[in-house]
Amino acid sequence: MTKTVTSLFHGEHHATAAANRLKQAGIPADDLDIWTTPHNLAPLLEDLGVSRADAHAYAEGVVRGGTVVIVRCAAPEVGKVVEILDQEGLLDLDEQQAEWRTEGWEAAGPAGDAARPPDAVPAAAETERAVEVIRGRIRVQSRRAERPGRE
User: Fold this and answer.
1) CA quadruple 124, 125, 128, 129: dihedral positive or negative?
2) CB atoms within 10 A of CB 121
3) Which of 37, 50, 147, 148 sits in a 20 to 30 Å window from 12, CA-based?
4) How are the residues of the chain apportioned to helix, strand and coil, as percentages rounded to the nearest 5?
5) Residue 113 parent element (H or E)
6) Residues 59/38, Cβ–Cβ less than 8 Å
7) Is 91 exposed, middle or buried (0-12, 13-18, 19+ CB in 10 A)?
8) What is the pTM of this model?
9) What is the pLDDT along the chain (151 residues), one digit of tens a residue?
C-alpha cells in the first residue's frame, strides 16, 4: 500500500534540505513534492487522502510563509521518511492551527467535508482512510481505493 507523508516546514530552505536528504536515501524525486504557494494545494492533498481540515491547514501554513513537503512511499519506507523529515525545521501543524485560531482563523471542519462537491472526489472511491499523526508534525495517510466489483 502506498503511503502519503505530509509535513509543514518553516520555509523553503528546510523543505529543500529535507527533500535532498530523502533523495540521497533512495526516495525517487518523482515521489517528492515541495509546495511554496497555496494555489490548488488543498484539493491536491485531499485527492491524496489528507483530511479536508489538514489540507486547508497546510495551505494556510504556506500562506503564512511555510513550505509543505509531500512524499509518496511504500509502507516499509515510512520510518526512514519520517526520521529524515523530523530532522529539518518542521512546524507542528496542531500547534500552528491552535495559534492561528487565536488570531481568528477558522479551520475547515467536518461540515466542510460533507459540503465537498461529488465531482471533487477522486475517481476511485475511498474504502479506507487512516491517518497517523507523529508528534503533531508529520501526517502519514493510508488509503485503499475500492476495486470495481463484479455483478
Assistant:
1) positive
2) 12
3) 50
4) 40, 25, 30
5) helix 110-114
6) yes
7) buried
8) 0.79
9) 889 999 999 999 999 999 999 999 999 999 999 999 999 999 999 999 899 999 999 999 999 999 999 999 999 999 999 999 998 789 999 999 999 999 999 987 654 443 333 333 333 333 345 677 776 788 888 865 443 444 4
The H or E element that residue 143 is part of is strand 138-145
Cα gap 80→58, rounded to integer Å: 22
Q: Which residue has the cell 518553516?
A: 10
> 118 is written with which cell numbers?
461529488
At residue 141, what is the residue type?
Answer: Q
